[in-house]
Specification:
With 111 residues, this protein is an all-beta fold. Helices cover 0% and strands 54% of the residues. The chain has strands spanning 3-7, 10-13, 18-25, 34-39, 45-51, 57-59, 67-72, 77-82, 91-97, 100-101, 105-110. Strands 2, 4, 5, 6, 9, 10 and 11 form a 7-stranded mixed sheet that branches. Strands 1-3-8-7 form a 4-stranded antiparallel sheet, with no helix packed on it. β7 (67-72) and β8 form a beta hairpin. The termini are far apart.
């Protein structure tokens, strides 16, 4: 059974940092690219970053230079290091592999 579990969200002041984790199980993690998305209240879910099976990375313009995605295949985990957070980063953050989604983790950035 495929399972994705996000963690690491919380409340942080503007300019602060958080590191999100996405722990995967139930499939061969190494074979898949992983994406992070976020959804703010009343808005659509937006893509923000991806990492391929070979660790090539991509970022949305809104987070480029502030967020860093990485993966640890031995731990079946993908990370999203978020620095210099802004109030507009407030959202529920989800990881995605194929058609599978985690339950999300809330990130709230206060001004």
């Amino acid at each position: 059974q495929v399972q994705l579990v996000e963690s690491g969200g919380g409340l942080v002041q503007a300019g602060g940092s958080l590191r999100l984790s996405c722990a995967a199980s139930g499939f061969t993690f190494d074979d898949y690219a992983v994406g992070w998305f976020r959804q703010a209240p009343g808005k659509e879910r937006d893509w923000i970053s991806s990492i391929t099976r070979n660790s090539y990375t991509a970022y949305a313009d809104s987070v480029k230079g502030r967020f860093t995605i990485s993966r640890d295949n031995a731990e079946n985990t993908v990370y999203l290091q978020m620095d210099n957070l802004k109030p507009e980063d407030t959202a529920v953050y989800y990881c995605n592999i194929g058609t599978y989604w985690g339950q999300g983790t809330q990130v709230t950035v206060s001004s």
